[in-house]
Write a sequence for this structure.
């Protein structure tokens, strides 16, 4: 309706949300929110944790039904009773949490999402076509369990594209990608919009939004705040709209002295599992008290194997991992935590937290060996509740209800909970895999500041991340992981994006710009 | 018409609690249809099945006697099922426990053994069941074999083993060639709790098992690790709980309780070893565990309900000449109804595309 008032110059809306309202109990998740996506444009949806972005997206694809307001598809009112009906009308969504079966191959997973029956070989050919056309690197016959997060995301995107959507909704797509991978995703998105499709791009990375998107809708606290042209805005003016205040940069505090080595990794080698998934080759690393070391690298280059070797989920040679002078390579997770080490895995749901257990029970996962909460094998509820409240208050974990299941929390809030659970244990070593994946700007800044503060108090911090900007912003030294090997860490001041980007792809002669040729 | 299930995000505790009741109602409806089809008055049949047994003290005692093995086995199964380990072979563990416990009763038969015999039999019974239960656990941990299949197949091994013993080496020489052992000595028999009837001390053991299991599952780290291993195995590994230990642990507990139930039954109401020491208690206990929501107190209630189907079945056999299979039909319908009610409460059934919408 607004579009027609502007006259014929503006292209018509393909999908439009008009004054959508959704309540969950007392919480108004969306309060008369409007948004229109036009054919051929990339539209950004910006907002903090809990701003109502997910709710809006879910209503636009039929996962949730609005309490009031309506959806317009090509100007006509439409109701999507379920996601299948929105899919048939050409609305495809790639969610932050992937819905893929680990035990199946890529092509089998894609087949599950498509109506009707199609021979797998024909489907694999279609996937290859789609991959060629849009420059997405996906191998149809690999098992999803072997894929990294970044690769899984590409599988989800391909699955959506095979349905030939007119509107593609991408929920935080670049959080897991390298600069190169992000660039090729942007080219894909540009290609899609040039074909007349519309893309709704949900992101916290304001630079990306400014580079990629034609218009941006900003939500805050469930309310529509503004619709702006991101190219006319600066990153900080967009952040102000989103947060309602200035966003703090993580303060650099390298004034303190480095102390004793807290983590020593010596000649750590892990055999591969027979598939192409990289294992580890001769990893060496030293992290001292007060230091933050970052490990950069594209997903699927051995980061998961490294994390599991460090956390004790995959124990090995006792001398290969030394925590605080104790050879710990042969110990399990509980014994390593007893050495005051803390671990935060990449997957929040199912690895760092049990999705269907109450949040307070999830406290027990890493604290049961610390004494206090569990005595003589019995769980004591009042210390548990106190610890739980400590995390919730100290780390600003927001949720509805008193003690919801972990799966009910938004990504950012769950991540704050998981980080808080470790930090409150007062560890001397923290290993974090993807600390801010899928987390909004304010929460990410909070998490980085928290880790910085721990380092200042003498904790050694290892951050494994695919977000290069993040590593450059708050680590002291950066090493690069590629095909299971690790470069020696270099002080951040002595390196650059370009040098690291080169090491990510070019260390073993595959050419640094291999990713861009794929397009 | 294509249909599909969608997971419901917010399922109220009330609806979860209502699911077993719904299942009971559904079972009664199916039962009514069955009685009509067989040419019986459903009201009279239900009265014989479910009302009359509650009428006098003797049958009430019998109800508890029948509920006792279901309760003990069901509590053990709750450990397995909470850990997402599907022990279907409690019947075999029951038999294994009964056999190992009876060995002592037979070895000391006719001698001067003191009152230590019965406690030792109970320990051996639990041990026998636990060892039998650990076989599928080992096969799963070592070879990745499905515990559902292996535990079920071991039921038949145990039953045939029992059959061999009571027809061969352990047969009562003075028993007119009936396949059964000698009657146990008084020191090898469960003491009775009342002057008349068959109510025995096993029910006290069962209630202790309920109390201990409620505590362990609800309040201890062990219970937490079982639950975690069941709902989020990767998170359990991250938390430092060894998957193998959980598997061995829950099978050992579950097997031990099933074995205990077996030896209590043999040393209690039966009094000697026979091929037919169980009317399918090990399988019916699966229904009790599911109907009781894997909670020991719930299983207590569910065991009484299922015991009623046994008692009612016996009464109907006598007064209506209905075959005992009717009881099996009731129990089977009940299990299917519980499983279906669970799914329907947690998920929502919807038609998929192609249909119009309001």
């Amino acid at each position: 309706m607004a579009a027609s008032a502007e006259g014929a110059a503006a292209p018509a809306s393909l999908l439009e949300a008009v004054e959508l309202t959704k309540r969950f109990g007392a919480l108004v998740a969306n309060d008369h929110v409007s948004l229109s996506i036009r054919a051929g444009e990339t539209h950004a949806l910006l907002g903090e944790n809990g701003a109502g972005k997910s709710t809006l997206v879910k209503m636009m694809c039929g996962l949730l039904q609005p309490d009031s307001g309506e959806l317009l598809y090509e100007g006509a009112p439409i109701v999507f009773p379920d996601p299948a009906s929105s899919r048939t009308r050409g609305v495809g969504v790639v969610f932050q949490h992937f819905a893929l079966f680990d035990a199946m191959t890529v092509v089998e997973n894609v087949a599950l999402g498509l109506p009707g029956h199609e021979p797998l070989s024909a489907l694999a050919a279609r996937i290859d076509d789609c991959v060629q056309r849009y420059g997405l690197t996906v191998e149809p016959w690999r098992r999803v369990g072997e894929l990294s997060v970044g690769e899984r995301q590409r599988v989800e995107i391909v699955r959506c594209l095979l349905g030939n959507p007119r509107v593609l909704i991408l929920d935080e797509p670049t959080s897991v990608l390298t600069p190169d991978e992000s660039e090729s995703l942007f080219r894909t998105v540009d290609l899609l919009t040039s074909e007349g499709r519309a893309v709704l791009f949900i992101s916290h990375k304001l630079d990306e939004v400014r580079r990629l998107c034609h218009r941006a809708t900003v939500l805050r606290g469930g309310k529509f705040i503004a619709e702006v042209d991101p190219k006319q805005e600066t990153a900080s003016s967009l952040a102000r709209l989103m947060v309602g205040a200035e966003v703090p940069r993580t303060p650099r505090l390298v004034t303190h002295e480095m102390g004793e080595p807290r983590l020593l990794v010596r000649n750590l080698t892990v055999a591969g599992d027979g598939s192409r998934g990289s294992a580890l080759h001769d990893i060496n690393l030293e992290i001292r008290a007060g230091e933050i070391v970052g490990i950069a690298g594209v997903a699927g280059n051995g980061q998961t194997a490294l994390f599991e070797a460090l956390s004790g989920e995959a124990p090995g040679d006792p001398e290969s991992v030394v925590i605080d002078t104790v050879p710990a390579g042969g110990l399990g997770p509980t014994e390593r935590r007893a050495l005051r080490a803390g671990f935060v895995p990449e997957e929040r749901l199912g690895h760092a937290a049990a999705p269907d257990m109450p949040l307070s029970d999830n406290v027990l996962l890493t604290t049961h060996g610390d004494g206090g909460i569990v005595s003589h094998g019995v769980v004591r509820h009042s210390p548990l509740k106190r610890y739980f409240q400590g995390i919730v208050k100290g780390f600003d974990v927001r949720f509805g209800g008193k003690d919801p299941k972990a799966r009910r929390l938004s990504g950012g809030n769950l991540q704050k909970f998981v980080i808080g659970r470790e930090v409150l244990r007062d560890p001397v070593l923290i290993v974090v895999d993807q600390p801010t994946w899928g987390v909004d700007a304010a929460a990410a800044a909070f998490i980085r500041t928290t880790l910085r503060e721990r380092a200042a108090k003498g904790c050694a911090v290892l951050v494994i991340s695919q977000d290069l900007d993040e590593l450059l912003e708050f680590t002291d030294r950066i090493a690069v992981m590629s095909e299971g090997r690790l470069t020696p860490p270099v002080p951040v001041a002595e390196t650059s994006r370009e040098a690291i980007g080169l090491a990510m792809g070019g260390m073993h002669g595959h050419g640094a710009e291999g990713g861009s040729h794929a397009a | 018409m294509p249909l599909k299930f969608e997971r419901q995000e917010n399922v109220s505790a009330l609806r979860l609690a209502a699911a077993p009741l719904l299942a009971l109602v559904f079972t009664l409806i199916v039962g009514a249809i069955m009685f009509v089809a067989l040419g019986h008055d459903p009201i009279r049949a239900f009265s014989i099945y479910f009302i009359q047994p509650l009428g006098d003290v003797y049958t009430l005692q019998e109800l508890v006697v029948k509920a006792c093995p279901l309760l003990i086995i069901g509590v053990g199964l709750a450990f397995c099922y909470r850990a997402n380990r599907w022990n279907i072979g409690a019947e075999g563990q029951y038999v294994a426990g009964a056999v190992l416990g009876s060995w002592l009763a037979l070895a000391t038969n006719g001698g001067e053994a003191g009152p230590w015999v019965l406690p030792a039999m109970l320990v051996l019974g639990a041990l026998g069941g636990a060892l039998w239960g650990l076989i599928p656990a080992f096969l799963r941990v070592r070879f990745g074999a499905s515990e559902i299949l292996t535990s079920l197949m071991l039921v038949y091994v145990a039953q045939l083993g029992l059959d061999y013993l009571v027809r061969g080496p352990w047969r009562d020489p003075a028993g007119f060639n009936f396949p059964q052992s000698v009657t146990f000595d008084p020191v090898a028999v469960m003491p009775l709790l009342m002057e008349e009837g068959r109510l025995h001390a096993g029910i006290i053991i069962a209630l202790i098992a309920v109390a201990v299991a409620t505590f362990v599952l609800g309040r201890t780290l062990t219970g937490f690790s079982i639950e975690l291993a069941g709902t989020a195995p990767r998170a359990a590994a991250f938390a430092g709980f060894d998957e193998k230990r959980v598997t061995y642990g829950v099978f050992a507990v579950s097997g031990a309780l099933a074995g205990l139930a077996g030896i209590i039954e043999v040393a209690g109401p039966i009094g000697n070893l026979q091929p037919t020491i169980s009317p399918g208690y090990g399988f019916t206990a699966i229904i009790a565990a599911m109907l009781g929501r894997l909670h020991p107190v719930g299983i207590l209630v569910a065991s009484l309900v299922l015991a009623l189907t046994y008692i009612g079945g016996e009464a109907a056999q006598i007064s209506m000449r209905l075959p005992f299979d009717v009881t099996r039909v009731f129990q089977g319908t009940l299990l299917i109804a519980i499983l279906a009610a669970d799914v329907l409460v947690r998920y929502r059934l919807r038609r998929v595309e192609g249909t119009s919408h309001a």
Summary: The two ends of chain B are 18 Å apart (CA to CA). Residues 91 and 282 of chain B are 4 Å apart (CA to CA).
